[in-house]
Amino acid sequence: MRGHVFITDKDTFPIVRDNSFWGVGIKDIPNTLEEVVKENLRNSRSPYFGMMGDILGTRIGDVVFLYERQVGFHGIYKITSEPFFDATPIGCVGEIWPMRVKIECLNYFPKPVPEDYLFSTREYESKFWGWFYRKIQGARGINTINPEATEALIELLVKMNGNAINKPSWIKPYPSKNITKITLPLDREGKVYLEDILRAWLISNIDNPNRKDLRDIFGPTEDIEWFANNVPYHVTRKNIDVLCYHKNMKYTGFPIRYQFSVVELKRDRAKPEDVTQVINYSKWVAGRLANSEIETVRPILIAFGFDEETMTKARDSDFSDRGISLFRYEVKSSDLRFEKVS
User: Fold this and answer.
1) 133: nearest Cα among 288, 305, 292, 338
2) 198 touches 184 (CB < 8 A)
3) How far apart are CA 242 and CA 228, in angstroms?
4) Could you please report the per-residue DSSP string of 169-234?
5) pLDDT for residue 252 is more than 80
6) Which residues make beta-bridge pairs with 257?
7) What pairs with residue 197 in β-bridges?
8) Does residue 205 contact residue 221 with C-beta atoms inside 8 Å?
């Protein structure tokens, strides 16, 4: 089960609830997708491609909770559209939220879950580690939460309310028709312009069943249980570029989570310290998420190129018998392609 927490406040919560959408953006963001792209290419520090990566990581059918600041978590909603760009003002949500998805209320629980309930027991604390680290690091519009946290939030909503009530009659379909598909600029002499673009493209295509190169990296699409980008794992601003859970039930009849893919991305050539970084991330995943089962964790380093020193360090790593998987990316014909490095 994939879940997301979408951030709102006392003003924006009723607007997105009643108009069946949610969006992300910032003050003074351009009101066309073309200008947003141009602005971020001019200024690499601009956050727009990062925001695109977050919203491109959503999928139709994903579970959504609306977090109202200082109030709590509202639910239960689901995503009903692919991400799109639309700067049409709706109520107090103006042009500052132009990257949007449509949502639908599945179960309307009148009482939200207060945030402190997430840490009221040791069991809940262990499930909401992602939310804890994200709060410590700083606000982010979209917070993708893992399956255990998603189920726990539903459980807390039921405990708070007992049962859902009928969806309010004032909740309407998304009103605007001025929708533009979100696309990413790619080609810059074989490389992506920015690492944020590489991350956004990868999270948007990670479960594409028709891409053999991506299946070589992430395995069968049907085994991908959960994935997220920029996953916080420390109180400092340390984030795993892409984290993916894999499971299947083909052999036992019940689901077994058998692998964690830990991905580090580099726009340029990878360096030996990048190998160290992905190993450190993988050690944390093994200890925190994989019950110290090192062999279930697969470190993956994706870069434009690798020098001999970096490849040697990866080969000589004693992290696990599985080793570190290296993949080279290249932009070809306005598309990204990946190849395993021997």
Assistant:
1) 288
2) no
3) 6
4) TT---------EE------BTTB-S-HHHHHHHHHHHTT-TT-HHHHHHH--GGGEEEEEEEEE-S
5) no
6) 247
7) none
8) no
Q: Is 333 domain-assigned? A: yes
Range of the domain at 77: 3-181
Residue 86 and residue 137 in one domain: yes
Same domain flag for 199 and 277: yes
Picking from 64-68, 134-138, 156-160, 165-169, which range would have the lowest pLDDT averaged per residue?
134-138
Indicate the helix (H) or strand (E) that contains 154.
helix 147-161
Q: Which two tokens stand for residue 143?
A: 């917070």
pLDDT (tens digit per residue) in 191-209: 999 999 999 999 999 999 9
Residues 157 and 228 in one domain: no
Which element (helix H / strand E) includes 48? helix 48-56
Report CA 4 to chain centroid distance, whole Å.
Answer: 8
Are 175 and 200 contained in the same domain?
no
Structure tokens at 284: 């944390």
What span, in angstroms and rounded, lies between the C-alpha atoms of 91 and 12? 8
Residue where a domain terminates, one of 124, 152, 181: 181
- The answer to the question of residue 143 being in a domain is yes
Residue with tokens 């944020």: 196
Number of folded domains in the chain? 2
d(CA 218, CA 213): 9
> Residue 156: inside a domain, yes or no?
yes
